[in-house]
Automatic annotation (TrEMBL), chain A:
SMART domains assigned: CO_deh_flav_C (SM01092)
Molecular function, one GO term: oxidoreductase activity
InterPro entries given in the database record: CO_DH_flav_C, CO_DH_flav_C_dom_sf, Diverse_Substr_Oxidored, FAD-bd_PCMH, FAD-bd_PCMH-like_sf, FAD-bd_PCMH_sub1, FAD-bd_PCMH_sub2, Mopterin_DH_FAD-bd
Domain FAD-binding PCMH-type: 1-223
Alphabetical keyword list: FAD, Flavoprotein
A Pfam short name: FAD_binding_5
Organism for this UniProt entry: Enterovirga rhinocerotis
Name the UniProt record assigns to this protein: Xanthine dehydrogenase YagS FAD-binding subunit
PROSITE patterns hit by this protein: FAD_PCMH (PS51387)
Automatic annotation (TrEMBL), chain B:
Record keywords: 2Fe-2S, Iron, Iron-sulfur, Metal-binding, Oxidoreductase
GO molecular function, one term: metal ion binding
InterPro entries in UniProt: 2Fe-2S-bd (IPR002888), 2Fe-2S-bd_dom_sf (IPR036884), 2Fe-2S_ferredoxin-like_sf (IPR036010), 2Fe-2S_ferredoxin-type (IPR001041), 2Fe2S_fd_BS (IPR006058), Beta-grasp_dom_sf (IPR012675), Diverse_Oxidoreductases (IPR051452)
Keyword presence, Amino-acid biosynthesis: no
Protein name: Carbon-monoxide dehydrogenase small subunit
Start and end residues of each 2Fe-2S ferredoxin-type domain: 5-81
Domain of life: Bacteria
Pfam families named in the record: Fer2, Fer2_2
Length: 316, 165
């Protein structure tokens, strides 16, 4: 691993200001993804700003009747929180479907939102990858692409976002609170947080250099059945081929987002409008314009079947 | 190389101050600087679980944490858990049930088992299996490990019932 300098931040605003001072600075929280990438020299920060001491690890009610989740709340603690389990069951279930218990003990809420793709060519530093090395080309297009995206892709990149948590947060209309290096705070709706690759697949989210996530807020609980169903190659500790996060009402109406198929959690109003007509109609609306490869075309029917299973479960 | 940073932490009950280079992982720090080689390094990417230690009472991968981040924390390794007798019954059950062969994964297995039983006194076999999904064993096929942990859960529950209220 390349060497780097290290500091512990004293406040969120100071952390952001410190990160803006150095071009090669990065924040470190749980580190479960960052250390991995640093060992492979895919991430090579010159300076790490440890944010673990910033006291951003509580879950508090908001005046609007929702919850404000501190950026440093660990995935294990978030999944186990009684309010999350009761009012936002889809989020608790999505968290428990991700990684392993040991990783969830360390992984944070903000870090989970920022985790990088698990595209095998992003991880293989001997191969070209536009995300890792802009302009070098994409090895996944025409390569082994069983796990890769069918929606929201570009000629430059077909990587997926690997998060389970983010799919549930998307269906719950979560918002991301940040502080910028100048001390200004802003709120980014999760729908606008992750970026599609276009010609700049190395730009993955809306954060500016040095901008620090401080919390994720959830609006008032949405009534209905909260379901998260994840389909993967083995029963635990694997990334989703397809996952569905849904909140479904009594007449089959509701909302859903799909993971494992795009560079961000994939959700469309037009598809939700089709929900009462069933999984075939809703998934057809969601997947209009899909671009598949030889390896991942199966995901189109897998989305329909997984959504079908979710709607079946919601009726039961 | 960047300048080492002074860190103060408690390892297996002993408070100590050492210098650590920022890029040194907690696993390397425990093994190389403190000679606590019971923490094993397998995959070095948070998959196999051989490097698990208790960090402030919670099982975490010491290969995915920098030593400098453990400043102010309490770390327990398999050596400390053994010395304090916290896992004696688990070790005994693993031995009785042949829940290890080469033994490389065993320290991590014991840390996971201890963490699971602290959180949930009587886990189902399915819950034990789920907890072990972050621990790889290439010898046993897991069945004996699940048996051993289940046995200890029962024994601990029984001994709690025998205690006067």
């Amino acid at each position: 691993m390349r060497s780097f300098t290290y500091e512990r931040a004293a406040s969120p605003a100071e952390a952001a200001a410190a990160a803006a001072r150095q071009a090669k600075a990065k924040f470190i929280a749980g580190g479960t993804n960052l250390l991995d990438l640093m060992k492979l020299e895919i991430e090579t920060p010159g300076h790490l700003i440890d944010v673990n001491g910033l006291n951003l690890d509580t879950i508090e009610p908001t005046p609007e009747g929702g919850l404000r989740i501190g950026a440093l709340v660990r995935n294990t603690d978030l999944a186990a929180d009684p309010r999350i389990r009761r009012d936002y069951g889809v989020l608790s279930r999505a968290l428990l479907a991700g990684a392993s218990g040991q990783l969830r003990n360390r992984a944070t809420t903000a870090g989970n939102l920022l985790q990088r793709t698990r595209c095998p060519y992003f991880y293989d530093t001997a191969q070209p990858c536009n995300k890792r090395k802009p302009g070098s080309g994409c090895s996944a297009i025409g390569g082994f692409s069983r796990h890769l995206a069918v929606m929201g892709t570009s000629e430059a990149c077909i990587a997926t976002n690997p998060s389970d948590m983010a799919v549930a947060m998307r269906v719950l209309d979560a918002a991301i609170e940040t502080v910028k290096p100048d001390g200004a705070a802003r709120t980014i709706p999760i729908a606008e947080f992750h970026r599609l690759p276009g010609e700049t697949p190395h730009v993955e989210n809306a954060l500016e250099q040095g901008e620090l996530i401080t919390a994720v807020t959830l609006p008032k609980p949405a009534g209905g059945r909260h379901i998260y169903r994840k389909v993967r190659d083995r029963a635990s500790y694997a990334f989703a081929l397809v996952s569905v996060a849904a909140v479904i009402g009594r007449h089959g109406e509701g909302r859903f987002a799909v993971g494992g198929i795009a560079p961000k959690p994939w959700r469309m109003q037009a598809a939700e409008a089709e929900l009462p007509r069933g999984a075939k109609a809703a998934s057809a609306a969601l997947l209009a314009g899909a671009k598949t490869t030889h390896d991942n075309a199966f995901k189109l029917s897998l989305v329909e079947r997984t959504l079908g299973a979710v709607l079946h479960e919601a009726r039961g | 190389m960047t300048a080492p940073v002074a860190i103060t932490l408690t390892v297996n009950g002993e408070r100590l101050t050492r210098l650590a280079e920022p890029r040194e992982t907690l696993a390397d720090f425990l093994r190389r600087d403190l000679g606590l080689t019971g923490t094993h390094l397998g995959c070095e990417m948070g998959v196999c679980g051989a490097c698990l230690v208790m960090l402030d009472g919670t099982p975490v991968h010491s290969c995915l944490s920098f030593a400098v981040q453990a400043d102010g924390s309490a770390v327990e390794t398999i050596e400390g858990l053994t010395e304090s007798a916290a896992v004696t019954d688990l070790q005994q059950a693993f031995h009785e049930r042949n829940a290890l062969q080469c033994g490389f994964c065993t320290p991590g297995m014991l840390v996971t088992a201890q963490g699971l039983l602290a959180r949930k006194a009587s886990p189902s076999r399915e819950e034990i299996r789920d907890a072990l999904s972050g621990n790889y064993c290439r010898c046993t096929g897991y069945e004996a490990i699940v048996d051993a942990i289940e046995t200890v859960a029962r024994r601990r529950a029984a001994s709690r019932e025998e205690l006067p209220a």
